[in-house]
Design brief:
five-stranded mixed sheet, elongated, eight-stranded mixed sheet, alpha/beta
Length: 465
Amino acid sequence: MKLPPAGPARDEACMREALAQARLAQAAGEVPVGAVVVHGDAIVGRGHNAPVTLHDPTAHAEIRALREAAQALGNYRLDGCELFVTLEPCAMCSGALLHARLARVVFGARDPKTGAAGSVLDLFAEQRLNHHTESVAGVLAGECGALLSEFFRARRQEARSTAQPLREDALRTPEERFAALPDYPWPPHYVNDLPALDGLRLHYLDEGPRDAPLTWLCLHGNPSWSYLYRRMIPVFLGSGGRVVAPDLVGFGRSDKPKRDAAHGFEWHRQVLLELVERLDLTQVVLVVQDWGGLLGLTLPMEAPERYRGLLVMNTLLATGDAPLSPGFLAWREMCAKNPGFGVGRLLARGNPQLTPAECAAYDAPFPDAGHRAALRAFPPMVPERPDAEGAAISRQARDFLAHDWNGQTLMAVGAQDPVLGLPVMQALRTQIRGCPEPMVLPQAGHFVPEQGEEVARRAVGYFRP
Protein backbone atom coordinates (compact mmCIF):
# COMPACT_ATOMS: atom_id res chain seq x y z
CA MET A 1 0.00 0.00 0.00
CA LYS A 2 1.13 3.57 -0.67
CA LEU A 3 1.17 5.62 2.49
CA PRO A 4 0.00 9.25 2.76
CA PRO A 5 2.57 12.03 3.18
CA ALA A 6 4.06 12.64 6.63
CA GLY A 7 1.54 13.90 9.13
CA PRO A 8 -1.35 12.73 11.31
CA ALA A 9 -3.14 10.95 8.43
CA ARG A 10 -0.02 8.93 7.68
CA ASP A 11 0.44 8.01 11.35
CA GLU A 12 -3.16 6.81 11.56
CA ALA A 13 -2.86 4.79 8.33
CA CYS A 14 0.24 3.06 9.66
CA MET A 15 -1.39 2.41 13.02
CA ARG A 16 -4.35 0.78 11.29
CA GLU A 17 -1.91 -1.62 9.67
CA ALA A 18 -0.55 -2.36 13.14
CA LEU A 19 -4.12 -2.92 14.38
CA ALA A 20 -4.64 -5.47 11.61
CA GLN A 21 -1.61 -7.32 12.96
CA ALA A 22 -3.01 -7.08 16.49
CA ARG A 23 -6.21 -8.78 15.33
CA LEU A 24 -4.14 -11.65 13.95
CA ALA A 25 -2.68 -12.08 17.42
CA GLN A 26 -6.17 -12.00 18.94
CA ALA A 27 -7.40 -14.67 16.52
CA ALA A 28 -4.50 -16.88 17.63
CA GLY A 29 -5.34 -16.40 21.32
CA GLU A 30 -2.37 -14.09 21.94
CA VAL A 31 -2.47 -10.67 23.62
CA PRO A 32 -3.59 -8.45 20.70
CA VAL A 33 -0.56 -6.29 19.98
CA GLY A 34 0.61 -5.56 16.44
CA ALA A 35 3.44 -3.59 14.89
CA VAL A 36 4.75 -2.46 11.51
CA VAL A 37 8.07 -0.96 10.44
CA VAL A 38 7.90 1.77 7.78
CA HIS A 39 10.75 2.87 5.51
CA GLY A 40 9.93 5.84 3.32
CA ASP A 41 6.45 5.21 1.95
CA ALA A 42 6.52 1.42 2.30
CA ILE A 43 5.91 -1.08 5.09
CA VAL A 44 8.98 -3.31 5.31
CA GLY A 45 8.20 -5.31 8.45
CA ARG A 46 5.11 -6.66 10.16
CA GLY A 47 4.65 -8.54 13.40
CA HIS A 48 2.12 -9.57 15.98
CA ASN A 49 2.44 -11.08 19.43
CA ALA A 50 3.21 -14.82 19.38
CA PRO A 51 5.17 -15.78 22.53
CA VAL A 52 2.65 -18.50 23.44
CA THR A 53 2.36 -19.90 19.93
CA LEU A 54 6.12 -19.89 19.29
CA HIS A 55 7.18 -20.77 22.87
CA ASP A 56 9.42 -17.70 22.67
CA PRO A 57 9.45 -15.00 25.36
CA THR A 58 10.99 -12.55 22.87
CA ALA A 59 8.26 -12.99 20.22
CA HIS A 60 6.65 -9.63 20.88
CA ALA A 61 5.09 -7.76 17.97
CA GLU A 62 7.89 -5.18 17.84
CA ILE A 63 10.69 -7.76 17.81
CA ARG A 64 9.05 -9.78 15.04
CA ALA A 65 8.48 -6.63 12.96
CA LEU A 66 12.12 -5.58 13.46
CA ARG A 67 13.37 -8.99 12.35
CA GLU A 68 11.28 -8.90 9.17
CA ALA A 69 12.38 -5.34 8.38
CA ALA A 70 16.05 -6.14 8.94
CA GLN A 71 15.80 -9.09 6.55
CA ALA A 72 13.98 -6.97 3.96
CA LEU A 73 16.56 -4.17 4.11
CA GLY A 74 19.59 -6.39 4.59
CA ASN A 75 20.81 -4.53 7.65
CA TYR A 76 20.21 -4.78 11.38
CA ARG A 77 20.55 -1.00 11.56
CA LEU A 78 17.21 0.48 10.55
CA ASP A 79 18.28 4.10 10.12
CA GLY A 80 15.46 6.33 8.96
CA CYS A 81 12.76 3.74 9.74
CA GLU A 82 9.73 4.22 11.95
CA LEU A 83 7.88 1.63 14.01
CA PHE A 84 4.16 1.79 14.75
CA VAL A 85 2.85 -0.43 17.54
CA THR A 86 -0.58 -0.63 19.18
CA LEU A 87 0.76 -0.78 22.76
CA GLU A 88 3.55 1.10 24.49
CA PRO A 89 6.74 -0.97 24.17
CA CYS A 90 8.14 -2.84 27.17
CA ALA A 91 11.77 -2.52 28.30
CA MET A 92 12.92 -5.46 26.15
CA CYS A 93 11.32 -4.06 23.00
CA SER A 94 12.38 -0.48 23.74
CA GLY A 95 15.98 -1.63 24.04
CA ALA A 96 15.74 -3.43 20.70
CA LEU A 97 14.17 -0.39 19.05
CA LEU A 98 17.00 1.80 20.27
CA HIS A 99 19.64 -0.70 19.14
CA ALA A 100 18.03 -0.75 15.68
CA ARG A 101 18.64 3.01 15.43
CA LEU A 102 15.03 3.77 14.52
CA ALA A 103 14.24 7.39 13.85
CA ARG A 104 10.80 7.26 15.42
CA VAL A 105 8.52 5.00 17.47
CA VAL A 106 4.77 5.66 17.46
CA PHE A 107 2.44 3.76 19.80
CA GLY A 108 -1.27 3.70 20.52
CA ALA A 109 -2.35 2.72 24.02
CA ARG A 110 -0.21 3.27 27.10
CA ASP A 111 0.84 0.32 29.27
CA PRO A 112 0.77 1.42 32.93
CA LYS A 113 2.30 -1.87 34.12
CA THR A 114 5.30 -2.47 31.83
CA GLY A 115 5.48 0.51 29.47
CA ALA A 116 9.03 1.76 28.92
CA ALA A 117 8.20 4.86 26.89
CA GLY A 118 6.98 7.02 29.74
CA SER A 119 4.55 4.96 31.83
CA VAL A 120 6.85 2.98 34.14
CA LEU A 121 10.12 4.38 32.83
CA ASP A 122 11.20 6.18 29.67
CA LEU A 123 14.17 4.62 27.94
CA PHE A 124 13.67 6.92 24.95
CA ALA A 125 14.36 9.96 27.16
CA GLU A 126 17.53 8.49 28.68
CA GLN A 127 20.25 10.99 27.72
CA ARG A 128 23.12 8.67 28.65
CA LEU A 129 22.32 6.32 25.75
CA ASN A 130 24.25 6.92 22.56
CA HIS A 131 21.21 6.88 20.27
CA HIS A 132 17.98 8.79 20.70
CA THR A 133 14.73 7.71 19.07
CA GLU A 134 11.72 9.99 19.06
CA SER A 135 8.63 8.46 20.69
CA VAL A 136 5.05 9.55 20.00
CA ALA A 137 2.11 8.34 22.08
CA GLY A 138 -1.63 8.13 21.62
CA VAL A 139 -2.21 7.52 17.91
CA LEU A 140 -5.59 5.72 17.66
CA ALA A 141 -5.23 5.08 21.38
CA GLY A 142 -8.96 4.43 21.80
CA GLU A 143 -9.11 1.67 19.20
CA CYS A 144 -5.85 0.11 20.36
CA GLY A 145 -6.94 0.17 24.00
CA ALA A 146 -10.43 -1.17 23.23
CA LEU A 147 -8.96 -4.22 21.50
CA LEU A 148 -6.82 -4.99 24.55
CA SER A 149 -9.63 -4.29 27.02
CA GLU A 150 -11.99 -6.64 25.23
CA PHE A 151 -9.34 -9.37 25.11
CA PHE A 152 -8.64 -9.21 28.83
CA ARG A 153 -12.34 -8.88 29.66
CA ALA A 154 -12.98 -12.11 27.75
CA ARG A 155 -10.04 -13.75 29.52
CA ARG A 156 -11.44 -12.77 32.92
CA GLN A 157 -14.88 -13.98 31.96
CA GLU A 158 -13.48 -17.28 30.74
CA ALA A 159 -11.57 -17.68 33.99
CA ARG A 160 -14.75 -17.01 35.95
CA SER A 161 -16.65 -19.46 33.79
CA THR A 162 -14.31 -22.29 34.64
CA ALA A 163 -15.21 -21.69 38.27
CA GLN A 164 -18.95 -21.73 37.59
CA PRO A 165 -20.33 -24.84 39.28
CA LEU A 166 -21.98 -27.51 37.16
CA ARG A 167 -25.44 -28.57 38.21
CA GLU A 168 -25.75 -32.22 39.20
CA ASP A 169 -28.45 -32.79 36.58
CA ALA A 170 -26.31 -31.44 33.70
CA LEU A 171 -23.14 -32.21 31.79
CA ARG A 172 -20.47 -29.87 30.40
CA THR A 173 -18.54 -30.80 27.27
CA PRO A 174 -14.77 -30.80 28.00
CA GLU A 175 -13.09 -27.66 26.65
CA GLU A 176 -10.40 -29.68 24.86
CA ARG A 177 -13.02 -30.88 22.37
CA PHE A 178 -13.27 -27.29 21.13
CA ALA A 179 -9.54 -26.79 20.59
CA ALA A 180 -8.34 -25.62 17.16
CA LEU A 181 -11.77 -25.52 15.52
CA PRO A 182 -11.33 -24.52 11.87
CA ASP A 183 -12.44 -20.96 11.08
CA TYR A 184 -13.82 -20.39 14.59
CA PRO A 185 -11.24 -18.20 16.36
CA TRP A 186 -13.55 -16.21 18.62
CA PRO A 187 -13.19 -16.39 22.41
CA PRO A 188 -16.06 -17.84 24.46
CA HIS A 189 -18.40 -15.82 26.65
CA TYR A 190 -20.55 -17.35 29.35
CA VAL A 191 -23.49 -16.39 31.55
CA ASN A 192 -25.12 -18.52 34.24
CA ASP A 193 -27.14 -16.03 36.30
CA LEU A 194 -30.11 -15.44 34.01
CA PRO A 195 -33.22 -16.36 36.02
CA ALA A 196 -34.40 -18.94 33.48
CA LEU A 197 -31.03 -20.68 33.45
CA ASP A 198 -31.25 -21.48 37.15
CA GLY A 199 -27.48 -21.96 37.32
CA LEU A 200 -26.91 -23.62 33.95
CA ARG A 201 -24.13 -22.07 31.90
CA LEU A 202 -24.94 -20.55 28.51
CA HIS A 203 -22.22 -19.90 25.94
CA TYR A 204 -22.33 -17.10 23.37
CA LEU A 205 -20.04 -15.30 20.96
CA ASP A 206 -19.93 -11.51 21.22
CA GLU A 207 -17.72 -9.79 18.67
CA GLY A 208 -17.49 -6.27 17.27
CA PRO A 209 -18.06 -2.82 18.80
CA ARG A 210 -20.80 -2.48 21.42
CA ASP A 211 -22.01 0.72 19.74
CA ALA A 212 -22.14 -0.80 16.25
CA PRO A 213 -24.88 0.50 13.93
CA LEU A 214 -26.27 -3.06 13.65
CA THR A 215 -26.12 -6.10 15.92
CA TRP A 216 -26.50 -9.44 14.15
CA LEU A 217 -28.12 -11.90 16.57
CA CYS A 218 -27.47 -15.33 15.04
CA LEU A 219 -29.63 -18.20 16.33
CA HIS A 220 -28.82 -21.76 15.31
CA GLY A 221 -31.08 -24.80 15.24
CA ASN A 222 -30.96 -28.52 15.89
CA PRO A 223 -28.50 -30.29 15.78
CA SER A 224 -26.00 -27.52 15.06
CA TRP A 225 -24.52 -24.77 17.25
CA SER A 226 -22.97 -21.32 16.78
CA TYR A 227 -20.22 -22.93 14.65
CA LEU A 228 -22.87 -22.92 11.89
CA TYR A 229 -22.40 -19.15 11.42
CA ARG A 230 -18.60 -19.11 11.10
CA ARG A 231 -18.80 -18.24 7.37
CA MET A 232 -21.22 -15.34 7.89
CA ILE A 233 -19.76 -13.79 11.04
CA PRO A 234 -16.61 -12.36 9.34
CA VAL A 235 -18.79 -10.60 6.73
CA PHE A 236 -20.96 -9.03 9.44
CA LEU A 237 -17.89 -7.96 11.44
CA GLY A 238 -16.18 -6.62 8.32
CA SER A 239 -19.12 -4.27 7.79
CA GLY A 240 -18.56 -2.74 11.24
CA GLY A 241 -21.33 -4.71 12.92
CA ARG A 242 -21.55 -6.51 16.24
CA VAL A 243 -22.30 -10.24 16.25
CA VAL A 244 -23.90 -12.17 19.12
CA ALA A 245 -24.29 -15.90 18.55
CA PRO A 246 -25.47 -18.00 21.52
CA ASP A 247 -25.47 -21.76 21.85
CA LEU A 248 -28.89 -22.91 22.99
CA VAL A 249 -28.77 -24.84 26.26
CA GLY A 250 -27.95 -28.42 25.35
CA PHE A 251 -25.84 -27.44 22.33
CA GLY A 252 -22.30 -26.26 21.62
CA ARG A 253 -20.37 -25.02 24.63
CA SER A 254 -23.50 -24.50 26.73
CA ASP A 255 -24.36 -26.87 29.59
CA LYS A 256 -26.37 -29.95 28.68
CA PRO A 257 -29.20 -31.13 30.94
CA LYS A 258 -29.14 -34.90 31.25
CA ARG A 259 -32.90 -35.40 30.93
CA ASP A 260 -34.73 -34.99 27.63
CA ALA A 261 -37.70 -33.61 29.58
CA ALA A 262 -35.64 -30.65 30.81
CA HIS A 263 -36.12 -29.04 27.39
CA GLY A 264 -39.22 -27.05 26.51
CA PHE A 265 -40.22 -24.49 23.89
CA GLU A 266 -41.19 -21.74 26.31
CA TRP A 267 -38.15 -22.25 28.53
CA HIS A 268 -35.66 -21.96 25.65
CA ARG A 269 -37.52 -18.88 24.43
CA GLN A 270 -37.36 -17.29 27.88
CA VAL A 271 -33.60 -17.87 28.06
CA LEU A 272 -33.18 -16.01 24.75
CA LEU A 273 -35.41 -13.13 25.89
CA GLU A 274 -33.36 -12.75 29.07
CA LEU A 275 -30.07 -12.87 27.15
CA VAL A 276 -31.22 -10.08 24.82
CA GLU A 277 -32.16 -8.01 27.88
CA ARG A 278 -28.93 -8.78 29.73
CA LEU A 279 -26.77 -7.75 26.79
CA ASP A 280 -29.12 -4.81 26.08
CA LEU A 281 -29.10 -5.57 22.35
CA THR A 282 -30.48 -2.86 20.08
CA GLN A 283 -30.58 -2.25 16.32
CA VAL A 284 -30.82 -6.04 16.03
CA VAL A 285 -30.96 -7.95 12.78
CA LEU A 286 -32.27 -11.35 13.86
CA VAL A 287 -30.53 -14.09 11.84
CA VAL A 288 -32.37 -17.40 12.11
CA GLN A 289 -32.32 -20.92 10.71
CA ASP A 290 -34.24 -24.07 11.73
CA TRP A 291 -35.07 -23.90 15.48
CA GLY A 292 -33.40 -20.52 15.53
CA GLY A 293 -36.50 -19.34 13.65
CA LEU A 294 -39.09 -21.35 15.57
CA LEU A 295 -37.86 -19.65 18.73
CA GLY A 296 -36.36 -16.47 17.35
CA LEU A 297 -39.29 -15.28 15.27
CA THR A 298 -41.34 -15.11 18.48
CA LEU A 299 -38.91 -12.64 20.11
CA PRO A 300 -39.48 -9.29 18.32
CA MET A 301 -43.10 -8.91 19.47
CA GLU A 302 -41.85 -8.69 23.09
CA ALA A 303 -39.61 -5.67 22.41
CA PRO A 304 -40.16 -4.36 18.86
CA GLU A 305 -37.96 -1.33 19.51
CA ARG A 306 -34.89 -3.55 19.75
CA TYR A 307 -35.21 -5.11 16.27
CA ARG A 308 -34.28 -3.60 12.89
CA GLY A 309 -34.58 -6.61 10.62
CA LEU A 310 -35.04 -10.32 10.05
CA LEU A 311 -32.71 -12.53 8.02
CA VAL A 312 -34.70 -15.75 7.68
CA MET A 313 -33.24 -19.03 6.37
CA ASN A 314 -35.04 -22.40 6.09
CA THR A 315 -37.28 -22.30 9.12
CA LEU A 316 -40.98 -21.89 10.03
CA LEU A 317 -43.44 -20.72 12.64
CA ALA A 318 -44.91 -23.84 14.25
CA THR A 319 -48.39 -22.60 15.13
CA GLY A 320 -50.00 -26.01 15.68
CA ASP A 321 -52.97 -25.24 13.40
CA ALA A 322 -51.43 -26.64 10.21
CA PRO A 323 -50.09 -30.15 9.62
CA LEU A 324 -46.34 -30.62 9.77
CA SER A 325 -44.73 -31.41 6.45
CA PRO A 326 -44.01 -35.03 5.41
CA GLY A 327 -40.33 -34.10 5.25
CA PHE A 328 -40.30 -33.01 8.88
CA LEU A 329 -42.22 -36.09 10.02
CA ALA A 330 -39.62 -38.26 8.26
CA TRP A 331 -36.83 -36.32 10.01
CA ARG A 332 -38.47 -36.79 13.38
CA GLU A 333 -38.89 -40.51 12.77
CA MET A 334 -35.23 -40.82 11.78
CA CYS A 335 -34.13 -39.08 14.99
CA ALA A 336 -36.28 -41.42 17.08
CA LYS A 337 -34.96 -44.55 15.39
CA ASN A 338 -31.31 -43.40 15.26
CA PRO A 339 -30.72 -41.28 18.37
CA GLY A 340 -26.94 -41.58 18.02
CA PHE A 341 -26.72 -40.24 14.46
CA GLY A 342 -23.50 -38.44 13.56
CA VAL A 343 -24.07 -34.68 13.50
CA GLY A 344 -21.05 -34.00 11.30
CA ARG A 345 -22.04 -36.76 8.92
CA LEU A 346 -25.56 -35.32 8.68
CA LEU A 347 -24.19 -31.85 7.85
CA ALA A 348 -21.85 -33.30 5.24
CA ARG A 349 -24.73 -34.94 3.36
CA GLY A 350 -26.04 -31.60 2.17
CA ASN A 351 -22.64 -29.86 2.29
CA PRO A 352 -20.09 -32.16 0.61
CA GLN A 353 -17.51 -29.35 0.74
CA LEU A 354 -17.14 -29.81 4.52
CA THR A 355 -13.72 -31.07 5.57
CA PRO A 356 -13.28 -33.88 8.12
CA ALA A 357 -12.15 -31.26 10.65
CA GLU A 358 -15.34 -29.25 10.13
CA CYS A 359 -17.48 -32.36 10.52
CA ALA A 360 -15.60 -33.12 13.74
CA ALA A 361 -16.37 -29.59 14.96
CA TYR A 362 -20.08 -30.27 14.60
CA ASP A 363 -19.65 -33.50 16.57
CA ALA A 364 -17.51 -31.84 19.25
CA PRO A 365 -20.31 -30.82 21.67
CA PHE A 366 -21.72 -34.35 21.86
CA PRO A 367 -19.08 -36.86 23.01
CA ASP A 368 -21.62 -39.46 24.17
CA ALA A 369 -25.32 -40.20 24.57
CA GLY A 370 -25.48 -38.35 27.87
CA HIS A 371 -24.66 -35.07 26.14
CA ARG A 372 -27.33 -35.57 23.44
CA ALA A 373 -30.57 -34.97 25.37
CA ALA A 374 -31.34 -31.81 23.37
CA LEU A 375 -30.85 -33.66 20.08
CA ARG A 376 -33.44 -36.20 21.21
CA ALA A 377 -35.81 -33.64 22.72
CA PHE A 378 -36.07 -31.03 19.98
CA PRO A 379 -37.80 -32.98 17.16
CA PRO A 380 -40.84 -33.89 19.35
CA MET A 381 -40.92 -30.30 20.71
CA VAL A 382 -42.13 -28.83 17.40
CA PRO A 383 -45.77 -27.88 18.10
CA GLU A 384 -48.15 -29.94 15.96
CA ARG A 385 -51.44 -29.27 17.80
CA PRO A 386 -53.08 -25.95 18.68
CA ASP A 387 -52.71 -26.73 22.39
CA ALA A 388 -49.07 -27.88 22.20
CA GLU A 389 -46.46 -25.90 24.15
CA GLY A 390 -45.28 -22.98 22.04
CA ALA A 391 -48.17 -23.08 19.57
CA ALA A 392 -50.10 -20.17 21.08
CA ILE A 393 -46.94 -18.04 21.30
CA SER A 394 -46.15 -18.86 17.68
CA ARG A 395 -49.65 -17.80 16.59
CA GLN A 396 -49.19 -14.51 18.45
CA ALA A 397 -45.88 -14.03 16.66
CA ARG A 398 -47.52 -14.81 13.31
CA ASP A 399 -50.14 -12.12 13.94
CA PHE A 400 -47.49 -9.62 15.05
CA LEU A 401 -45.29 -10.27 12.01
CA ALA A 402 -48.25 -10.10 9.64
CA HIS A 403 -49.76 -6.88 10.97
CA ASP A 404 -47.36 -4.98 13.25
CA TRP A 405 -43.83 -5.76 12.07
CA ASN A 406 -42.22 -2.55 10.80
CA GLY A 407 -38.67 -3.77 10.20
CA GLN A 408 -37.03 -5.03 7.03
CA THR A 409 -36.98 -8.72 6.13
CA LEU A 410 -34.65 -10.69 3.88
CA MET A 411 -35.34 -14.36 3.20
CA ALA A 412 -32.76 -16.85 1.85
CA VAL A 413 -33.77 -20.37 0.92
CA GLY A 414 -31.68 -23.48 0.36
CA ALA A 415 -33.60 -25.07 -2.50
CA GLN A 416 -32.30 -28.59 -1.82
CA ASP A 417 -33.85 -28.76 1.66
CA PRO A 418 -36.36 -31.65 1.74
CA VAL A 419 -37.83 -30.52 5.09
CA LEU A 420 -38.04 -26.70 5.13
CA GLY A 421 -37.48 -25.88 1.49
CA LEU A 422 -39.01 -23.34 -0.89
CA PRO A 423 -42.73 -24.28 -0.44
CA VAL A 424 -42.49 -23.95 3.36
CA MET A 425 -40.55 -20.70 3.09
CA GLN A 426 -42.95 -19.20 0.57
CA ALA A 427 -45.78 -19.90 3.01
CA LEU A 428 -43.77 -18.22 5.79
CA ARG A 429 -43.08 -15.24 3.53
CA THR A 430 -46.80 -14.53 3.27
CA GLN A 431 -46.94 -14.34 7.09
CA ILE A 432 -44.30 -11.59 7.39
CA ARG A 433 -45.37 -8.08 6.50
CA GLY A 434 -43.31 -6.57 3.70
CA CYS A 435 -41.19 -9.66 3.06
CA PRO A 436 -39.98 -9.63 -0.56
CA GLU A 437 -39.44 -12.65 -2.77
CA PRO A 438 -36.75 -14.87 -1.28
CA MET A 439 -33.16 -15.14 -2.35
CA VAL A 440 -32.93 -18.75 -3.60
CA LEU A 441 -29.68 -20.70 -3.38
CA PRO A 442 -30.14 -23.57 -5.87
CA GLN A 443 -27.34 -25.76 -4.53
CA ALA A 444 -27.85 -25.13 -0.81
CA GLY A 445 -29.71 -27.49 1.47
CA HIS A 446 -31.20 -27.11 4.93
CA PHE A 447 -28.10 -25.62 6.59
CA VAL A 448 -27.95 -22.46 4.47
CA PRO A 449 -25.30 -20.68 6.60
CA GLU A 450 -22.77 -23.28 5.41
CA GLN A 451 -22.97 -21.44 2.09
CA GLY A 452 -23.78 -18.16 3.73
CA GLU A 453 -21.07 -15.74 2.58
CA GLU A 454 -23.21 -14.64 -0.37
CA VAL A 455 -26.25 -14.30 1.88
CA ALA A 456 -24.27 -12.30 4.45
CA ARG A 457 -22.91 -9.91 1.81
CA ARG A 458 -26.41 -9.38 0.43
CA ALA A 459 -27.72 -8.80 3.96
CA VAL A 460 -25.03 -6.23 4.78
CA GLY A 461 -26.11 -4.13 1.82
CA TYR A 462 -29.81 -4.74 2.36
CA PHE A 463 -29.87 -3.77 6.04
CA ARG A 464 -27.30 -0.99 5.77
CA PRO A 465 -28.36 1.86 8.12
